Amino acid sequence: MTTKQKAYFALAGTSILWGTTWVASRIAVQKAPGLQIAAIRQLIAGTLLVSFFLLRGQKIPSRKQFAWLLLMSLLMFVSSNGLATISVKYIPSGLSALIAALYPLCVVIIEMVFFKNNKITLFTILGLLLGIGGIAIVFYDNAFHAHPNGYGLGILTSVISMITWSIATVFIARKKMDMNPYNATGWEMLIGSIILISFIWISGDHIPLSNIQPEAWAAIAYLVTAGSVIAFAAFIYTMKHLPPAIAALYAYLNPIVAIIVGSIIVGEKLTLVILVGSLITLVGVYIVNQSLKKQRDYIQMDADAI
């Protein structure tokens, strides 16, 4: 098998593993509070990543780096990951994954409203309309089915999770930190877990570890090993050996994997309307990403010309 073939295999693995983590989270949160599940996952995964990079000679973050890591941790792991984990207790994992995939659209809106620096083209508008329209189709189909208590809370937490991830993405794009991004992710997970543990301890929204059922522990083990270690390594390999545009395809495949696997393993409703709406949403997200890429390319060409 050639290096390129291995990279495509790694891309497929990343898409499948990260897609199935939504379903694993849904299984886990039926047996324990969502924030507790998120805290345990982040504590174990963050400890593994931080230990790995420390053993490879990476230094402990400076005070300035730690301040940045704290901010990113609050946005990406306390708020975004924590709320996303809560959401799958109340809504299908595929729907939560699809809402999370909308973050590029949210980034465009944030840049438009607060920074006035994105030239919006008809191509971008088309992508935004398709993304929003696809989600509307999915919601329309769901509107005619009975929902368990907390469905609205699940939608709300999922949307807020997507928004905070988008804000973090804007910050990261605008301020580069002199630190290995994968090492930084480990520290952000570790910091996030400490904050979450403190919060659930104070709020009392937790259960004794001994009361967490084996099924939930198995899901947590999968989230850590498959989601935070194996898929993480596969993603790095993909980024090294495939063009960025190809490596980024995992973001469009994750929700489809979550929708299909969720329907098979946990019996989440899957209809042709939901599938079509999901595909329309992902096409819209892809178009927006492509329009932004073209804008960045034009800006770089102008800079090179100067």
| Helix and strand sequence | HHHHHHHHHHHH
The biggest beta sheet is recorded as: none
**Averaged pLDDT:** 83
* Beta-strand content: under 5%
Instruction: Report the uncertain regions.
Output: 297-306
Helix content: over 70%
Shape: globular
What structural class results from the helix and strand content?
mainly alpha
The Cα radius of gyration reads: 19 Å
Q: How many H/I helices? A: 12
Report on this structure.
- The protein is mainly alpha-helical and 306 residues long.
- The protein is built from twelve helices and no strands.
- The protein has helices at residues 3-29, 34-55, 63-87, 93-100, 103-115, 122-142, 151-174, 181-203, 214-241, 244-247, 250-265, 272-305.
- Helix 4 (93-100) runs antiparallel to helix 11.
- The model is unreliable at 297-306 (pLDDT under 50).
Question: Short summary of the structure?
Answer:
This protein is mainly α and 306 residues long. The chain has helices at 3-29, 34-55, 63-87, 93-100, 103-115, 122-142, 151-174, 181-203, 214-241, 244-247, 250-265, 272-305.
Primary descriptors:
mainly alpha; single chain; globular
Break the fold down into its secondary structure elements and pairings.
Blueprint: H1 3-29, H2 34-55, H3 63-87, H4 93-100, H5 103-115, H6 122-142, H7 151-174, H8 181-203, H9 214-241, H10 244-247, H11 250-265, H12 272-305
Helix pairs in contact: 1-4, 1-9, 1-11, 2-3, 2-8, 2-9, 3-7, 3-8, 4-11, 5-7, 5-12, 6-12, 11-12
